[in-house]
Specification:
Keywords: Membrane, Transmembrane, Transmembrane helix. The chain has 4 helices and no strands. The protein is mainly α. The chain has one domain. It is elongated and about 55 Å long.
Length: 120
Amino acid sequence: MITTIISMFGNKCPNCNKGKIFEKRLLHFSFSFPKMHENCSNCGTKFEKEPGFFFGAMFVSYGLGVAEALITYFICMPFFEETFDLRIIPIIGVVILSLTLVNIKLSRIIWIYMFKDYSV
């Protein structure tokens, strides 16, 4: 379980744990959409199993965004007097927007790992 999580955050292939899924590392910030390899450079595993395979990764990305918003809220809550101060909303928005590209990559990696034993 721990090695799987380390491989996910290391952008490694779910089959051989050596090849990269994305061209850049997980925490690489740029203004372009992350580029993904079609196959693993080491073992040849195809990452996109069928057209529309990553549609479900949107739901994983939504869950990651909600978790980040809740964590941000609970971290910021002690710094405000009221239980829910409206000044927390922009802080949550900035955190979610700054982690958007990380969420795209991580949600696709999680989705690939969920279906790593699936073959067409």
